[in-house]
């Protein structure tokens, strides 16, 4: 037997158990070496930083979205103007055709002109 007593088991130095911030309290591995008080402070700081970063990101995305919307509105306005001109042209073309057909079948001294005029009116109503 030896006179020197031997310690068996795990030996942990006292400094390894203390809080990482050096406040004098004991740390906890679940809290990454901080004591409960220091852990709350660190967690609160990290959370506030994340909230601030998220807020800045949201503002930036909102600005980009508004700029994209404004850009699409100006582009859409130009397309709408082009489409309006197209519609106007089609309407004028249709009116011109109807007028030409009406002139062609207007009443004349020919016999049966009323019958032809009646057929043209029916035809025009069905085309619209």
From TrEMBL:
<keyword id="KW-0863">Zinc-finger</keyword>
<dbReference type="Pfam" id="PF01754">
    <property type="entry name" value="zf-A20"/>
</dbReference>
<keyword id="KW-0862">Zinc</keyword>
<dbReference type="GO" id="GO:0016192">
    <property type="term" value="P:vesicle-mediated transport"/>
</dbReference>
<protein>
    <recommendedName>
        <fullName>A20-type domain-containing protein</fullName>
    </recommendedName>
</protein>
<dbReference type="GO" id="GO:0005085">
    <property type="term" value="F:guanyl-nucleotide exchange factor activity"/>
</dbReference>
<feature type="domain" description="A20-type">
    <location>
        <begin position="13"/>
        <end position="47"/>
    </location>
</feature>
<dbReference type="GO" id="GO:0031267">
    <property type="term" value="F:small GTPase binding"/>
</dbReference>
<dbReference type="InterPro" id="IPR045046">
    <property type="entry name" value="Vps9-like"/>
</dbReference>
<dbReference type="GO" id="GO:0008270">
    <property type="term" value="F:zinc ion binding"/>
</dbReference>
<dbReference type="GO" id="GO:0003677">
    <property type="term" value="F:DNA binding"/>
</dbReference>
<dbReference type="InterPro" id="IPR002653">
    <property type="entry name" value="Znf_A20"/>
</dbReference>
<dbReference type="GO" id="GO:0005829">
    <property type="term" value="C:cytosol"/>
</dbReference>
<keyword id="KW-0479">Metal-binding</keyword>
<dbReference type="GO" id="GO:0030139">
    <property type="term" value="C:endocytic vesicle"/>
</dbReference>
